[in-house]
């Protein structure tokens, strides 16, 4: 038989299915029928090879995911802390807690001492006497140094 | 009431595929193998295929709000995977084919089919290798529609939705792909 399916008709036949005329030809022509069957088997093998490969990969992935699962340990994990960290922590406590406390105590002692000086009766009386014996209020004392005294006026005024 | 069983879930997702996106973990579980298969067929390298499949689901997760259910979830995922494969092929065009040829022959040697005799197995492996090599000579569109039709078993309508081509164009590419592969296999005279 000379009029076998052309490559285009063969491809059309494979992709879209044979028309009635093509079907009749395939039924009669063993060569074309064998060609179609052979090509179909080749494509099928190709598909199977990809499917087998991917299925094997997916199964392998699932197995590796399962093996990566680690059950919980019996107790909490103990973390070893080096000794020098404990020393640093103690130093930090001393700096941030004890130093402010000690500083505050020193200041309060100084305040008490100052207060005790002020409350000394003799000192207090001296301070009152000094304040009462002033001719002008304390803020005006610097001005008195500029203003000439009565002796200077009697001797002829300001030169 | 929201179904909790797998069959109920599938029933809901068939009615409205957009609902299927809500449970993303299950979506990955359901579609990962098929997406990986298509990507592996397209790039011919399992490590790269796994990486691209992961990217595909990451992109799908990011754009899940935009999915309106116009097509099936699988078609939508294939569309994303196809874009990733195209980007990858464009970036590594020259290294790709060299590596692809090597990878295919390695995969075939490991094909664990024990139902046939060693001689037949060798013959089948030879044929499979020949198809790999033949698909490498096809254009990107011809190869994609060939894989979607004969590896993924998508119908013409689904291929058209995934690739953005019309159904008649998909048919034309498929016919050309089959003709090209057959010519490469030395079957057409």
Give the percentage of residues in beta strands of chain A. under 5%
The structural class of chain B is mainly alpha
Give the beta-strand count of chain A. 0
Which spans of chain B of ≥5 residues are poorly predicted at pLDDT below 50? Answer: 1-14
Mean pLDDT of chain B: 79
> Largest sheet of chain B at a glance?
none
How many helices of chain A? Answer: 7
Helices and strands of chain A: which structural class? mainly alpha
Instruction: Sketch the major β-sheet of chain A.
Output: none
Oligomer: heterodimer
Helical content of chain A (DSSP H or I, runs of 4+): over 70%
Broad shape of chain B: globular
Distance between the termini of chain A: 152 Å
* Total count of helical runs of at least 4 residues of chain B: 9
Could you give a quick summary of the protein structure above?
Chain A is mainly α and 159 residues long. Chain A is built from 7 helices and no strands.
Topology summary:
The complex is a heterodimer of chains A (159) and B (189).
Chain A: H1 7-16, H2 20-28, H3 30-68, H4 83-118, H5 121-132, H6 141-144, H7 150-154
Helix pairs in contact in A: 2-3
Chain B: H1 6-15, H2 24-43, H3 46-62, H4 73-91, H5 93-109, H6 118-136, H7 140-150, H8 156-163, H9 167-185
Helix pairs in contact in B: 2-3, 2-4, 3-4, 4-8, 5-6, 6-9, 7-9, 8-9
Explain what you see:
The complex is a heterodimer of chains A (159) and B (189). Chain A has 159 residues and is mostly helical. Helix content of chain A is 72%, strand content 0%. Chain A has helices at 7-16, 20-28, 30-68, 83-118, 121-132, 141-144, 150-154. Residues 70-78 of chain A have low confidence and may be disordered. The chains are: A mainly alpha (159), B mainly alpha (189).
